[in-house]
Structure formats: C-alpha cells, structure tokens
TrEMBL record:
Keywords in alphabetical order: CBS domain
Alphabetized PANTHER family for the sequence: CBS DOMAIN-CONTAINING PROTEIN, CBS DOMAIN-CONTAINING PROTEIN CBSX3, MITOCHONDRIAL
Organism (species): Noviluteimonas lactosilytica
Keyword Oxidoreductase: no
Record-linked PROSITE patterns: CBS
Identification of the protein by name: CBS domain-containing protein
InterPro entries documented for this protein: CBS_dom, CBS_dom_sf, Diverse_CBS-Domain
Taxonomic placement: Bacteria, Pseudomonadati, Pseudomonadota, Gammaproteobacteria, Lysobacterales
Domain of life (superkingdom): Bacteria
Gene3D superfamilies per record: CBS-domain (3.10.580.10)
Domain CBS: 7-68, 76-133
Length: 149
C-alpha cells in the first residue's frame, strides 16, 4: 500500500514567523494536534518544521513563557522526518519508529508538501487490511464447507 492512498491531503500549515499564540489558535480552529511549518517556494509549500500541541505545552506554557513573544521557528522541530507519496506503508512505519514521531509530512517529487500521515491513519489502514484478510479466510472456509456437502 502506498502512502498516497491513505494520507490526508488537507494539511494545517503555518508560517515559521507566526507566534505560538497564533499556532495554538490555528490548531484549535482546524481541530488538529500539529501544524506543518512551511516556507513558500515557487507557489509550493515546503515543509521546514513541525509543531505539536505537546511542544507548545512543554516548551512554552509549562515554562511560563508569553505565547505572543515566541515564534513557531523558536519551538518547532526543524527538518522534520518526511515520507514520499509513493513510499510504501511499512517504510513510513519504519521512519516513524526510528525518528520517534507519530506524524509525517508527505512530500512530492520536488519536496513540496502534498499531505500528512499519522500513526492513527496507519492503524486504520492496517486494521482494514486485517479485516479484509479475515473476510477472505471466512469466504474460503464457507466455500470449502459447501464443497463437502
């Protein structure tokens, strides 16, 4: 299964110069736990980092820092792990495991942002594969039973 088949194409993004307050408000408005920090190059969005609600909680809120005085660039994870839209599902799983992340921006051939995939997306896709395999086994057993009668 290719990443392009299961990733979300609707990615919540933010500029690196936005304040943490704006980032938190964007997360709330989009109902997401992360934003991909981007730069624009030739009208394409290029991922430069990723910021999560956890980053904001631990690096800003818990430290008592004013969210208006800190930018996304100050807190984001730089050079985020990514995967290509033509990568295989298990390659993305391996990248997540090695890098210790739960989300990967998905990039096209020119490095442009085309989607995002989360551990939840992967769990859902694997669950669907397991269900289909179980159904195939059930049909096979039913056919065998019919043949014996």
């Amino acid at each position: 299964m290719r990443i392009a088949e299961i990733c979300s194409r609707d990615v919540a993004c933010i500029g690196t110069t936005a304040s943490i307050r704006v980032a938190a408000l964007d997360m709330r408005r989009h109902h997401v736990g992360c934003l991909v920090a981007i730069d624009c190059r030739d009208a394409e969005r290029i991922p430069r980092g990723i910021i999560t609600d956890r980053d904001i909680a631990i690096e800003v809120t818990a430290m008592g820092i004013d969210p208006e005085s800190v930018t996304v660039a100050d807190v984001m994870a730089r050079s985020p792990a990514t995967c290509g839209e033509n990568d295989k599902l298990f390659d993305a799983i391996d990248t997540m495991r090695v890098r210790g992340v739960r989300r990967l921006p998905v990039v096209g051939v020119r490095g442009q942002l085309v989607g995002i995939i989360s551990a939840g997306d992967i769990n859902e896709a694997l669950g669907m594969c397991v269900r289909e395999l179980w159904q195939a086994g059930s049909r096979s057993r039913a056919r065998e039973s019919e043949g014996r009668q």
